[in-house]
Amino acid sequence: MPERVFNFSPGPAVLPLPVLEQARDEMLALPGVGMSVLEISHRSPAFDRILEETIASLRELLGVGADYEIVFLQGGASLQFSMVPMNLLRGRSEKADYVLTGTWGVTAAKEARREGGVHVAWDGKASNYDGLPTASEIALSERPSYIHITSNETIQGVQWKQLPDLGDAPLVCDCSSDFLSRPIDVERYGLIYACAQKNAGIAGVTVAIIRRDLLERSSDTLPKMLDYRTFVEAGSRPNTPPVFAVYILGLVCRWIRDTMGGLKGMAAHNAAKAKLLYDVLDASGGFYAGHARPDCRSDMNVTFRLPSEALENEFTTLATALGLVDLKGHRSVGGIRASIYNAMPVAGVEALRDHMLAFMESQAVSRADG
């Protein structure tokens, strides 16, 4: 097998090796089908089984009750930034409340303004989105149509570890970058959406989990393919869905369940990986400066700066030579971003930790020699 690097990309991201191996082994012909998953009809019995098993796995892993629908869409989270307000806000007198904890929350609110009134209940812009608000800091409107949050901001590296009490309005959550990484209390949400290409599979499929009563808000004036009811009524097949992406999502669900101990096991695995890197940050005496405040650091995206941009460039160049790739931070934060999603093996995080320690030591020696 060709040598694999450790891929720290924020997405599309690393996939579990057993999932890649199974997809490889079944690529020419699905067992009992005689053709590739890339060739089967989306109306075939073979895809019926894939679709049903994937939805059943998601319900089991997440504890999704019967009063919620699970649908598969396309367009990524970016399309959901529009579909959510189209279906839940359009034509209503109430405003939608947005809690802005980073780049993706800001982008979602911008799209929502095209459909109706938006109230910013909290905005972390003043501190460049390095933290999360307490419940008392979130100023909700009188009767919000819904409240939108982003569970994990990939660019800034902040993550909600516990949700504050936000009242009775439907809670809508962009879970794209920590979906299936930990248990979630689905009953607290009206709508959850997540693109798959970070923790749950490959680009092409987006999962939406919608409480049934919210479907009543969708208007008949909506374009067919922007109406959640269309996907519910057609079983996620109003057109040709991304068959291969759904297949991979199903394999990832199986891997989490059978190999990683479900979402509780997955969460413990992810927290232990993140701790390896945050321990280095905390013990570095400021050489590595984390962007996110310690109380809301992400287990998915570890973001930090070095003393200078020149050192950051040297750090990433040496890392690439060691097979540690895609560590450069987003331009709005700079520095380093290590995305350590579900499928990132412990060995990869340990290799990055060792590079961090060695690089810091080399700089100390250089300063002493100078």
List keywords for this structure.
three-stranded antiparallel β-sheet; Aspartate Aminotransferase, domain 2; alpha/beta; 35% helix; 15% strand; 370 residues; Aspartate Aminotransferase, domain 1; 9 helices
Briefly, what is this?
The chain has helices spanning 17-25, 45-62, 76-88, 103-112, 228-233, 243-258, 262-283, 309-321, 346-369; strands at 6-7, 68-73, 96-100, 118-123, 147-150, 152-153, 158-159, 171-174, 191-195, 206-211, 289-290, 301-305, 324-325, 336-339. It is an alpha/beta fold.
Describe what you observe in this structure.
With about 375 residues, this protein is of the alpha/beta class. The chain folds into two domains: about 15-260, 3-Layer(aba) Sandwich (Aspartate Aminotransferase, domain 2), CATH 3.40.640; about 260-370, Alpha-Beta Complex (Aspartate Aminotransferase, domain 1). About 35% of the residues lie in helices and about 15% in strands. It contains nine helices and 14 strands. It has helices at about 15-25, 45-60, 75-90, 105-110, 230-235, 245-260, 260-285, 310-320, 345-370; strands at about 5, 70-75, 95-100, 120-125, 145-150, 150-155, 160, 170-175, 190-195, 205-210, 290, 300-305, 325, 335-340. The strands form four sheets. A seven-stranded mixed beta sheet has the order 2-10-9-8-5-3-4, with helices on both faces. A three-stranded antiparallel beta sheet has the order 11-12-14. Strands 1-13 form a two-stranded parallel sheet. A hairpin with a 4-residue loop joins strand 6 (about 150-155) and strand 7 (about 160). Helix 1 crosses helix 6. It is globular and about 70 Å long. The mean pLDDT is about 95.
